[in-house]
Amino acid sequence: MSHTAHIPSHRKPRRSASKLALRAGVAGGVLSTIAVAGAASPAMADPVHETVEMPTLTAAPTAATTTAPTASAEATQQIAFEYDRQARQEAAAADAAKDAKTAKAEADRKAEAKKKADEAREKAAEQAEQERASRSSARTTLASTGSSEGSGSSGSSSTASSSNASGSAAAVIAFARAQVGDAYVMGSTGPNAWDCSGLMQAAFGSIGVDLPRVSQGQSTAGTQVGLDNLQPGDILYWGSAGSAYHVGVYVGGGNFVGAQNSSTGVVERPLSYDPPTGAVRVL
What we know:
This protein is an alpha+beta fold. 46% of the residues lie in helices and 12% in strands.
């Protein structure tokens, strides 16, 4: 029998691997081993103590704890999105209302302008109709009075030639007077706007007399006559013969008709209003 057969062992019982794993949890395992130091001697060995450090158990995060913050963030984002969408809708509605108000104001302005334009056109048409009626009446009156006036102012011409000139002169004068009130527009030849030579060309053209287009040519188109020997139908000119800058027609009674300027248009005025330089007789 061995001399150590009766010496009791002080080694602690070995713990099973399953118990250690249970205590360590999912993060553990066996983290230590038991160190045993024993001296084989006749005397009783000192007890050997072991220290086992156990791992700290940490609970694994659950699905609930992970999902809760995410759901809260998503809810916050959704609320922010809804606020932003609502703000955009309100801004769009305000812009649309502003645009509609502007469009309505513009439509009202155009409608008012159109109304005024229509009224102005109607008034102008009425005035034009009245003027046409007045001119028609004037033509009839002047045609009869012009003949007698022309026949009574033959001057130094023979009676036969005066009689022929008077009838033509009356027609020229009637045409010119019928245009009184029309506008003066440089280069215009009627029927509602004239320049000075355009009116003379049209008036004499109404009886078949073809005059040059411009005042320079008209101032030399006939026989030069003195201003103290005028008769109705004579062409008056301002400036020198051949270089005149304005023309009109003598209508008798010390008056003339001419397309004066853009301010007055076609007017009948006394010779003293704008004394002419000379005159030519084409009838």
